[in-house]
Each structure stands twice: as C-alpha cells, then as structure tokens.
Amino acid sequence: MQQHRIIVLGAGYTGAIAAGRLAKRLHRDDVSITLVNAEPDFVERVRMHQLAAGQDLTPRPFAEMFAGTGVTLKLAKVTGIDVGGKTVTVTADGASPEELAYDTLVYALGSAWNTHGVPGTTEHAHQIASRPGALRLRERLAELPAGGTVTVVGGGLTGLEAATEIAESRPDLSVALAARGELGDWLSPKGRRHLRKVCAGLGITVHENTAVTEVGPDTVTTADGTALPADVTVWTTGFAVHPLARATALELGDTGQIVVDDTMRSVSHPDVYAIGDAALAMGAGDKPLRMSCASGTPTAWQAADSIAARLTGGKLPHAPLRYFNQCISLGRKEGLIQYVTADDHAVNAALTGRLAALYKELICKGAAWGVANPTMGLPTRRRRVTDTVRTATTEPAEVPA
Question: Which of 30, 180, 187, 264 is most buried by its number of CB atoms within 10 A?
C-alpha cells in the first residue's frame, strides 16, 4: 500500500510544530511527512529584535530537531502550488524545479513585513520580520556612530520590542518611536503607565498620533509634512502574508490568508490545511486571529490533530482558539505582560518589571521547546491510517468526462 503523503510548507513555529506533532500521532508505515523549508535551521522569529540589536541566538538545526522522528526535511524554496493536481513545485539552490505530489498539504508559509506601499520603505527602511532582515539591521547598527538616530515606525508589539531593545543595547544612539495612535493605546492603564516609564528611562523619543508617509535615506516624513531624523529607519507596521496562495484556486480573505474552518481545513479544498499567519481563522467572539506566535501555535496543534483524526477515524478536536495575555519584552531587564480577554482585549491586570521580563523569556524558550517537542509532554500515540483512507490514497481520482 502507498503511504499517505503529507507535505508541510514552511518550518517556522507553526510548520515545524505541525510536522513533529503529525509524526508522533501517525504510524510511520502509513504516512510520509515531508517538511519543506528554504533554511536548514529553525528561526526564532520572536527574537529577531534581539538578533538585530547584536545578540547571538542559539543555533537550532532541523537535522538535530527532527532526528529519528520520521520527518523528512526538504531544503528548498516553494515556487508553486497546484491544488487541482495536488502538487507543489520546489526549487533547491542550483537545482532544477522539482514537483512533489501530496495527499494532504499543510500551508505554513507565514508572513513578511508589510510596507503598506509607503514610498521609500523598500529602498531605505529595515525590517525584522525575517532573519536576513534582522542581520542587515544588525550590520547597519554596528556601523552607526554615537549620536546616530534610529527611528522605529510602528507602535505595536514588534515596534515596542525593537525600540526598547535597540535603546538599551545602544544608549549612545538617539532612538525614536513613531506610533500612529497613542503609545500603547490598546493596553490597560497600568500597562500604558509602565510602557511610558520604560521608554522615558531608556531615552526613547515617542511621536504619538504620527503617520509616516515617506521614508528617505536619513529622514521619515509624517502626514503633516514634518521630517523626522532617521539615519536608520526600522519599519514594523504589521505583516503581509506570503503571496503564493493568491496564485492558487484556494478561497482567500481580503488579506490573502486562506479561509479555514475550526479544524484549520481550507473551506474550498479539503485536502489543504492552513496554519499560523497564513490562515484566516476565527477565534473567540468570531473575530479573526491576529498574526502572532500566540495564534500560530494553537492552530498548528489543531491542524495536526485534525489531520490525524481524519486519517485514523478518531475524534476531531474543536478546542476554542483564544488569547490569555500579550507578552512584550522591553529590553533584557524590563517587560510587560498584559492580560487579555479571550478575544484579545486588555483587562486591568498586568505584570510589569523584571518579573515580566523573566516571564517573557520563559515564553520564548517555551515556544522553541514546543517546536522540538510538538506534543507538549503528551505521550506518543502513533495510530494506524484507516483502510478507507488507504484506498482513497492509492486509487486514482475519477476524472470528470
């Protein structure tokens, strides 16, 4: 009997977790699991601001992480998907394009920075949504002399972490943060007070209610025509999903995310699952989940367990997708843990200071540990694929007349 072929595209937090969890849920004789990724080691995306600020991160090679699991790592870039023919096209360095056939596809290609079409951003701004981007920023900051100006555009979680990390590691620089609204306006009063205190202590100049409309070589221009100095501009105004899905017949939302049900299964193509930033998944209050590690990990669990259940005749999981807190590092010594409702609205409770920094560090370490231990401490229970699935996998599909 032919094995049921599962291909996972992308080995960020969600893709790597899903691949490992599937390997521990399904019998190796019944399935083949291929994880496609362009890089040979795991990127801790939640630490890119640390990498940019000059800190070295622990190497995490996939060859070691997936040794003995049954997951096959394919080092290649995904260049095409044919959801009708159930194939993906990949290209490795120096090799011709290769076509891989699948029975079940897990789309976890994630997201990149979002320039929002602001002129000059691509040419002059730096981003920390990827390791190459963080490394380029790291190199630029290292050559920036004392007194140089760094302007971080975007007052969300990524912007706050970038501005505080850079200001703490380089107190000789003039660091500014441009926020479209008020600083931390989504936080509780306690959270906002602590954020202002930390920014003031680090000497960060905060420009509130400031929309940046153009980026130049050494300035950013705001909506009212003001030119803010910026020897280095760091752009952190949100994420845009990988564009590959737009070239497929998959049903997408306005954001380009793949529309999924509560098991992370595509609503248009039942053999495709989308997880993490690539998925338009609904959380508590029937609101779309935001692009974040906090959203991505539960979607990876949900997809892997749903695929395993459908293949083995088990019970489908319907765990609610909800939030508990927002964890923000503010340099290495300060942090902010904002507790939230299930649908991600701040409540009055917040943890601040050194304890919050330690909490955030545990969250980051736990996220990386979860990639290498995808069942989160649960016992391995490899189940056999049902005869019905075996037949559907091995028999050719009917072709309409």
Answer: 264
